[in-house]
Amino acid sequence: MPKRSLALAFVFLGLAALAAEPATTADEGSPSVLVQRKALAASKRFYLELDLSRKEIRLCHTGATLAVYPVASVEVGFPRRFFLPRRSDDLWIGRTWSQGHLDPPAELKRIRIVPGDEATAPTPGKAEVIPPTLDDLIPVPPRFRILFDGGRVLLVELTGEVPGALMATSPWKIRWREFQEGLGLKPSDPLRVRLRLDAATGAALYRSFPADPPDLLVVP
Amino acid sequence: MIQGPEEEGGLPPQAEKKPFAGEAGLLRRLLRWGLLVLLFLVLPLTLILAFLWISTGYGYRHLSPAYVEAHTAPFEPPEPGVGPEAAAALARTAIAKIRPKGVFIVIDRVKNLLYLKEGDQVLLKAVVSAGAGSVLDDPKTGRRWVFDTPTGRFFVKNRRENPVWVAPDWDYIESGEPLPKRFSDRIQEGMLGEYALDLGGGPPGYMIHGTLYTRLLGRNVSHGCIRVGRDDLRVVWKKTTIGTVVYMY
After folding, report:
1. Cα-based distances in Å from B2 to B5, B7, B10, B11, B16
2. What is the Cα gyration radius of chain B?
3. For residue B57, how many C-alpha atoms fall within 13 Å in the half-sphere facing its CB?
4. Is B128's Cβ below 8 Å from some Cβ in A?
5. Which terminus, N or C, of chain B has the lesser number of Cβ atoms within 10 Å?
6. Residue ranges of domains in chain A
7. A111/B135 touch (CB, cutoff 8 Å), yes or no
8. What is the ipTM metric for this complex?
């Protein structure tokens, strides 16, 4: 009897410990989403989640949410010629998109330290020298893409003024490229999802984008 | 033979009446052709190109519930015979095992912010200083240092009170001073504040520690470590233990 009650007590304690664990977004979702999230969490790499109902992108690692980037709008894009769309029948929601690369890639403009020169030292002793932040050293384009395997693309457009350095891109050049893609002169994205983000949020996502290409889980 | 007035002048009678009749006719003809070209070639071509430009490219539409439903992938069992509910329960248990237990630290090295978290709850948000990302070359030996804060998952490996700092070579090279001959000359007290949490990450390793340069909190000024203000560091010290998970991105 005492053994049985001891076992029961352990089971009870175990359940209590589980209940005490704070609920997180990692516990939510359909069975399909949870199964894929488990695989991503087990990878021990950074991964992203695009939550369509909450309208946010989450940066995660081993089941923990590290950063949340609110999204203003999510749209699906399709190449079209003479107003005739070529829609994709890809079942892209509730799936994991693999290996996301930034286009254009983020580039840190590194400062070369000159020995003995106060102005280039990371920690200047003089109060009047204000060192830059990574916001100043990583320029952000107002529009960028995250390219995944299989031609799936997240197009991120920033609205408002970008804090810190801005990468110069010509809107005409982008439009010309889209025109060529629509005409079929250049290969178009098989699936493109356009996200509009507040400039500060989008810039933060761009600057913090993991160097090791992350996977993306699209949560319906 | 008597010459008439027409022959005397040397010019035909029509030319006398309209001296530039040939040029005017040419101009008229050119105008007429120009108008025709404009009407039947340039204008239609412009309209066709404008139509092409507007109608070709990419179209976008918002995701309706019907679209989301139609483009959502069906459930695929992780193993044959496992139903959706059982798979979900197994996945939840597995995620709970993988994710950090209790308090963990998240560091945004771009925004220079440190979060002390438990689940999705933020216990502390502190302004810190992360790596400057600058490069130092030793002109004598050719050695190179890149002062980045690393990214990924780390663990608190050691906790030290009143830590001392053993200044590495780069500190002397950076300030243009000769390297000390004795090890004891490298030891500096008070530079790391009251506490230091060692995170490992290759020699000499990265730390979360205090700083004398509190005016520079919020800027990327460190050599890779995370500098925290005194009061925030005290909270971090109290809430963490050896083994606490630290994420840096």
Report:
1. 10, 10, 15, 18, 22
2. 40
3. 17
4. no
5. N
6. 3-219
7. yes
8. 0.84
